[in-house]
Amino acid sequence: MENKSLKILLIEDDEDDAFYIKDILNEGLGSPLPNVEHFSSVDKNLKQINPFDYDLALFDYRLGKTNGIELVRNFRHQNCNIPIILMTGQGDQEVAVEAMKAGVTDYLTKGKLSIESVTKSIRYVLGLHKEAELRKQAEEKLKKSHAQLAIAYEELQTSIGKLETAQKQIIISEKLAGIGRLVAGVCHEILNPLNIISGHTQTLLMERVTDKPLKLDLNSIMEEIGRITKIITGLLKFSRKGNIELKSSNIVKELESVLILVEKDMLLEGIEIVRDFESTSARVMVDTDGIRQVFLNLLNNAKHAISNGGTLTISTEIKISGSNLQSIPTEETPSSKLNKTFQIKFIDTGAGIKKDDLEKVFEPFFTTKPEEKGTGLGLSISYSIIERHGGILEIDSKVGVGTTVIINLPIQD
Ligand SMILES: Nc1ncnc2c1ncn2[C@@H]1O[C@H](COP(=O)(O)OP(=O)(O)OP(=O)(O)O)[C@@H](O)[C@H]1O
Ligand SMILES: [Mg+2]
Asked: Exposed e or buried b for every residue in 255-291, given b needs 16+ CB within 10 A?
């Protein structure tokens, strides 16, 4: 038996029986003596008793107006799960069954009460109670572990997602940086002879003004030189590092200034433009020429992608502390810088990009457009410009659904 004194509730209307049972309890349970509280009558509501005060209860079945089973039901109804022993008359089998159903832990036949039978029953019910308590604790622990495991699993999934995005971005950045170095070298090598060709061609044009067929050829050479120069200039923009002039600007105004240029054309082609602008007075440190070029590239791409009418939604908002933003802490874009960002989204309902192509769109010269419609430099230049601002440019797309381009630019307080 436990060392602390057991607090027992005895409800018995026969004073002699109560006296006898108390005696048995004192003798049977021994040291420390149990603390038995006896009530000879109780009303149905048991207002004078708090069931939670006791370790164990013993009820007589016959209790005048009420009976022991009613009391058991009342206790259980209050969610009190202490062990309860019911004392029934001889041969009351039906009562015993009903009592068990009501939540009695054990029952004793009143005529056969003895020290042995009572202590045996008490040990039995206390053992059961302890087991139930331990089981409950174990179940609760298990539930808690389950919940913790579920949280940990979710966190793991989020981390894996972030890691995958970060890896992709790092691969793109590294690839572009490598291509950038190569491109810068090659461009300079090409520009020199190109200038010489251009110079000679112009001289010839001036010297041989009267030779009409030659003039036609020379003009077409000049046109091609113009094309090459445009490509080379674009490539140099993509490859040049750190050559940007940042100044505090109203970014939404910059966006609007470019949007106006293409809006009419877009409307004529059945493209609806939805402006979902927030934080319209926010100021961001940007190279205005560079950022306008990014906007123009992205708007042109969306325009081209929406061939049979559709919607282009442009949204702007300030994002705090990396929410929705999967940042890659590289040397150029340390995560601390990305705690507060200005986010611009271009969401089009155009043709979308195939999964395989999506991995290549930032590569210079990757294009799915016919030669005269695109050189495949728009996105690689835009990526490079945003990267030089310490920002991130991301693209997501689903064929048949559309494309979303997200720009996050750091905001310094
Ligand atoms: N909004 C978009 N919807 C569908 N495809 C797109 C979108 N933006 C880009 N792409 C795909 O990515 C490719 C590369 O885009 P990028 O802007 O770099 O080059 P381009 O548009 O082909 O040519 P350029 O921009 O040099 O005129 C496109 O050819 C197109 O296949
Ligand atoms: Mg483009």
From this structure: bbebbeebeeebeeeebeeeeeeebeebebbbbbebb
Beta carbons of 402 and 349 less than 8 angstroms apart: yes
Per the domain annotation, does 148 fall within a domain? no
Q: Does residue 399 share a domain with residue 260?
A: yes
Domain containing residue 95: CATH number = 3.40.50.2300
- In this structure, the answer to whether residues 46 and 179 fall within a common structural domain is no
Distance 55 CA to ligand 2 centre (A): 79
Q: Residue 276 belongs to what H/E stretch?
A: strand 271-277
In this structure, the residues whose C-beta lies within 6 A of any atom of ligand 1 are: 297, 301-302, 305, 348, 350-353, 361, 366-369, 374-380, 403
CA distance 78 to 73: 9
Q: Give me the mean pLDDT over the 185-197 stretch.
A: 87
Distance CA 360, CA 367 (A): 9
Q: pLDDT per residue over 292-319, tens digit each?
A: 989 999 999 999 999 889 999 999 999 9
Express each pLDDT in 163-186 by its tens digit. 887 887 788 777 777 777 788 788
Do 248 and 214 fall within a single domain?
no
- What total of structural domains would you count in the chain? 3
Instruction: Give the Å distance between the CA of 261 and the centre of ligand 2.
Output: 16
Strands 84-88 and 106-109 turn out to be: parallel
Residue 272 has which token pair? 């609806």
Residue of minimum CA distance from atom 27 in ligand 1: 374
The reply to whether 49 and 95 lie within a common domain is: yes
Out of 125-129, 251-255, 282-286, 317-321, least confident range: 317-321
| Cα gap 329→23, rounded to integer Å | 78
pTM of this structure: 0.58
Question: What is the tens place of the pLDDT at every residue in 49-61?
Answer: 999 999 999 999 9
